[in-house]
Amino acid sequence: MVNANTNPILQDGFIGFSKIETKHYEEAFEKGFAEQDQNIEAIISNKEKPTFDNTILAFEYSNELLNRTVQILFNLTEANTNDDLDSLAQKYSPLLTEKSNQIMQNESLFNRVKEVYNQRESLNLDTEDLKLLEDTYTAFVRSGANLSKDDKKEFAELSKALSSLTLEYGQNVLKETNSFSMTLTEDFELDGLPDYVLNEALQRAKDAEKKGYLFNLSAPSYMPFMKFSNNRDLRKKLYMAYNTKGNKGGDNDNNNIVEQIVNKRLRLANIMGCKTYADYKLQRTMAENKGNVYELLDNLYDNYMPVAEKELEELTLFAKKLTKDSTFTVQPWDWAYYSEKLQEEKYNINEGMLKPYFELGRVKKGVFALASKLYGLSFTLNNNIDKYNKDVEVYDVTDGDGNYIATFYADFFPRSNKQGGAWMTEFRSQEIKNGKNLRPYISIVTNFSIPTDSTPSLLSFGEVTTLLHEFGHALHGMLANTKYASLSGTNVYRDFVELPSQFMENFAYEQCFLDDVAIHYKTGEKIPAEYIQKLRDSENYHVAYACVRQLNFGYLDMAWHTLDKAWEATNSNKVENFERAACTKTTFLPIVEGCCVSTAFGHIFSGGYAAGYYSYKWSEVLDADAFAYFKETGVLNPDTARRFKELLQAGGTVNPMELYIKFRGRKPIVDALLKRNGIISK
After folding, report:
1. Known catalytic residue: 576?
2. Of 168, 189, 431, 470, which is the active-site residue?
3. 126-177 pLDDT per residue, tens
4. What is the Cα–Cα distance from 676 to 625, expressed in whole angstroms?
5. Which residues contact 52 (CB under 8 A, 6 or more apart)?
6. pLDDT by residue (tens digit) across 94-110?
7. Which residues pair with 395 in a beta bridge?
8. Number of helical H runs and strand E runs in the chain
9. Going by C-beta distance under 8 Å and a sequence separation of 6 or more, which residues neighbour residue 596?
């Protein structure tokens, strides 16, 4: 028998991370599966007429322990993994999918759900109850509940295989990332690198017990090297390592996995009566269909591509002038380097000038202060709550009346057992149960510049906006105030979920934020007004190139997921070749053999953004339009902030377009984004 008193996963309240052993996961899964089976059987065997309470609510609460176990395990395989956790994930991921399919395709259970759904107009349900009913019914249908027996079986097999393949894909990318490092010792290898970059590289080498300066594929290492290193050969070496992940053969190669994933997704969509996977996936989005996605991408392409071409032309002329080589061609490993130098020449500003003013501790406090000004939240460090790694910070979050709102975990620095990039997640969702508002446990995970023996963590301006971005997601989770966990916080349409995060990025250029954060870590002096003006002047520097890069990813995603017949890799038609064809019109730097986005494109092959990467650009339309409203009414206008807070609190209880219209008074328009980026005049 599983003992809840000795298994931290089974205990209510905060998670005792430091006490969790491998066996505890196995025990929790065993108990979680058993409880879920009992709860589902109780719904099915209930002799009473199906009602909202005895069927829909009972189903909502049928897998609470299993959900808790899943959240802990799979969050840690992303942020703090080890071989045991990876093995557990590989073991339980297909089992979870298999169990889910069995439940969602259970005819007796679905008949009860359907009976309640068919009576929905006469049940006098409130908005949230009705949304839960509709979402529950739709989830069954989209999981194959209406399929024939044979199709149900194939659907289950496909989804089980996909859960394993996407997990393996992500693990391969992490292994590829960790397999490369570059330790430099000679002066000519370090030429051009600022002191703060060298100090961080020295610290990485020290931590790895190596001599010299260590560079790897983590963002705080990779990006500064590409921007500042005068050694073009080493820039190329690092670029090739970063952009060939999963495409070099061997145990961590993802080519075959990509082929399997796209074909299984296509077959799954076909079984569901859809021509392509995009048709299936986009049914539950604001975009609704692939035609609207392409309309958005094409509209942005038409507006931004001419400007991007001018940016490339200007950069090429600058590089030729700098190298005194009239035949010089800007290669992919040159863009960041010459872009940084041109920005410094045009605006007299560079990353090194700004970093001393953005010390992580102060920026963090400034982000908290912003949440206080907008929504009345306070953050208090709590060292008594257990955490999964010593680097993690834990905060109690309270409102203006001192009421507990959330627990917030912040994990800032790169580790070898941590995925690259930045994300928000949760260890417990908000919900109201038995009259009690259970508040959420929210986490953000980043890979920021590390502190060294001589300096604290100093952020690049890009890292500042990343922190604001992920904190925007966190606010969405922390402020959630709905009855049901499945409708809480970020449980919204994929192309709506990035609005709160991208909205927060706008404050990086606002005086009310910069006054709190932009202070020199040594002297205590505020950032000079001329620096702030330079920041604003350069806000749209190479904005078109950045947009086209995002469109490139969006078109690639749609190309893979609008396939209408199975794709087979051959010697002449590899993943790399497919990608080139899909991205022809958005590729304006030279193509490099061996480089491939698709074999390390975690967003769409292991991260939930399949047929959804466009949502980043759609959310930019939303966030620019929303922030324009804040600017019109006053950036910290309490009434505007209150209305946006209501949007955040609502989670997935209301159609996102209805939520947006309630906040803004109308549907979003693209003009605000084009004006913000200087594509059209204000």
Report:
1. no
2. 470
3. 999 999 999 999 999 999 999 999 999 999 999 999 999 999 999 999 999 9
4. 10
5. 116, 123, 125, 129, 133
6. 999 999 999 999 999 99
7. 381, 408
8. 28, 9
9. 243, 244, 246, 247, 575, 576, 579
